[in-house]
Structures are given as C-alpha cells and as structure tokens.
C-alpha cells in the first residue's frame, strides 16, 4: 500500500529538526500540537467511513479518492 508522500516528507523534516535541536541543546517549551487526524481515526474506527473521508478532505484539501485511500489506510492500521 502506498503512503502519502506529503506526510512522509513532513515526518522526515520533523526528524531532522529534532536532530538539529538536540545538537544545539534547544528545548521546545511549547505544548505539543494536537493531532489533526484524531477525529478522522475515531470516525474510521467507529465505522463512519464517509464522515471520516469528509473530515480528512476538510483538513487536507485532497481529492475524494486520496481521502478515501488515506482513511482506508487508517482503518488498516497504517
């Protein structure tokens, strides 16, 4: 199954930024950002796939097919 390249790129950037911050002993005192996809995962887990797809599209602005594929990956545990 194909993963969302944008999310993969973002994860790589975050890992690199974490390394730079550790190297320079920079501490992030900001509270962690809430996961914007928590609601999508919750809806998918409860079997509300159409609502999950709708919320995913509102968050990301992706096409219907891309949102459906992403929600199905979430349902599969990816």
Automatic annotation (TrEMBL):
GO CC annotation: ribosome
Record's keyword annotation contains Acetylation: no
Keywords tagged on the record: Ribonucleoprotein, Ribosomal protein
InterPro entries reported in the protein's UniProt record: Ribosomal_bL12_C, Ribosomal_bL12_C/ClpS-like
Ranges of residues in domain Large ribosomal subunit protein bL12 C-terminal: 47-74
Signal peptide per UniProt: none
Name assigned to this protein: Ribosomal protein L7/L12
């Amino acid at each position: 199954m194909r993963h969302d390249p944008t999310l993969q790129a973002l994860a790589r950037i975050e890992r690199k930024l974490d390394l730079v911050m550790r190297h320079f002993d920079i501490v992030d005192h900001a509270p962690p950002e809430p996961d914007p996809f928590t609601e999508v995962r919750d809806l998918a887990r409860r079997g509300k796939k159409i609502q999950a797809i709708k919320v995913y599209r509102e968050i990301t602005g992706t096409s219907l097919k891309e949102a459906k594929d992403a929600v199905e990956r979430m349902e599969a545990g990816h």
